[in-house]
Write a structure and sequence with these properties.
By secondary structure, the chain is α/β, with parallel strands linked by helices. It folds into three domains: 58 residues, no CATH class; 162 residues, 3-Layer(aba) Sandwich (Rossmann fold); 91 residues. The chain is built from eleven helices and 13 strands. Strands 6-9-12-5-13 form a five-stranded parallel beta sheet. The chain has a four-stranded mixed beta sheet with strand order 1-2-3-4. It has a two-stranded antiparallel ribbon with strand order 7-8. A hairpin with a 2-residue loop joins strand 7 and strand 8. Helix 7 packs across helix 8 and helix 9 crosses helix 10.
Length: 321
């Protein structure tokens, strides 16, 4: 089956100074007409220039793994593991859009009942007679079509749900539906992408079952390079060059501390964008950092707390007001 085409967008490419693509037929957010070149033949200017799709900066390794994986028949399982706000979920959505796949995000933390994955049975009285109807879930409908299903926060599902998913991830790619007694067969071009945050700081999570990891191609997703992150803050969040430089330097320093001290949280690109959004709406930068970053850290210890240490770190960098 031919893949849907993505086209190079001149307006976004100039704005970002990066090659930016939109799915064919999708309006450019800048209102410009897109070019007619196929994204598969438009290459970045250098190996250091990331591909950008709908404003999402695509890690080169993620794109390479995807391009190799979707050639397989049947489609493989992927697992993206990394810190929060590093683009795991957005990456799956953009990959699906790039190649014209239907996309479904499933919040695993909210799907605690195994039967919920299959749908519901409803009893309706018709002409005095009780009639049972089966209504399949969106998950069951989508898994039987060419699609990308993102099982978000895979390490938050209970044991009982694992037994539903495992048969769909192995060679059989099928599971018995307890609501109608029929076999659900996964479509050969249905890609299942599992995403998860790993770390002791995340409550309500479990270790990822080896039965999942052994059935998936695993990609470790980290935050983008500093120069790319600065570009995101400037071109997507409207930050000045000075503010973008200071925020990224602050985030990098905090991430380095988090690597050696598990009590320190990381600072995600998503959080930095939230800071920039508040600043663009008139809030001073330090207050924006307090509500978006500092106050999420531990305040235990008062002046010696991680929260206070973050504020001191920001001030030492000459943080703007």
């Amino acid at each position: 089956m031919a893949k849907a085409k993505s086209v190079a967008c001149p307006a976004c490419t100039v704005a970002w100074n990066l090659p930016v693509f939109h799915p064919e037929g999708t309006p450019c957010p800048k209102g410009a007409a897109t070019g007619e070149q196929d994204a598969q033949v438009v290459q970045p200017a250098t190996v250091h220039t990331p591909t950008t799709i709908n404003g999402y900066v695509m890690p080169a390794k993620m794109l390479a793994v995807w391009n190799a994986g979707v050639k397989q028949n049947p489609a493989p399982n992927f697992m993206f593991i990394g810190p929060p706000g590093s683009g795991k979920t957005d990456g799956g959505e953009c990959l699906a859009a790039m190649d014209g796949y239907e996309h479904l995000k499933v919040d695993c933390a909210s799907m605690t009942d195994p039967v919920d994955w299959f749908g519901v049975r409803e009893i309706v009285v018709e002409d005095g007679v009780a009639v049972t109807y089966y209504r399949p879930s969106q998950f069951i409908e989508t898994i039987q079509r060419r699609s990308v299903i993102n099982l978000d926060e895979i390490n938050r599902i209970p044991d009982a749900v694992r037994q539903v998913l495992l048969p769909l991830l192995d060679a059989s790619r099928a599971v018995l539906n307890p609501l109608d007694g029929k076999i659900v067969q996964r479509h050969p071009e249905c890609v299942i992408l599992m995403t998860g945050n790993v770390g002791l700081r995340f409550t309500g999570t479990s270790a990822i079952d080896p039965a999942f990891t052994s059935r998936a191609a695993i990609l470790n997703v980290d935050y983008v390079d500093e120069h790319v992150e600065r570009g995101i803050l400037r071109h997507k969040a409207g930050a000045s060059e000075q503010l973008a430089n200071q925020l990224v330097k602050f985030a990098v320093d905090v991430r380095e501390k988090a690597k050696v001290d598990p009590d320190w949280p990381t600072v995600s690109t998503r959080e930095l964008m939230n800071v920039c959004n508040f600043v663009s709406d008139g809030l001073d930068t330090t207050t924006a950092l307090e509500i978006c970053v500092f106050n999420g850290a531990s305040s235990e210890g008062g002046a010696s707390s991680i929260q206070s240490a973050m504020a001191i770190l920001w001030a030492a960098l000459g943080g703007t007001q």
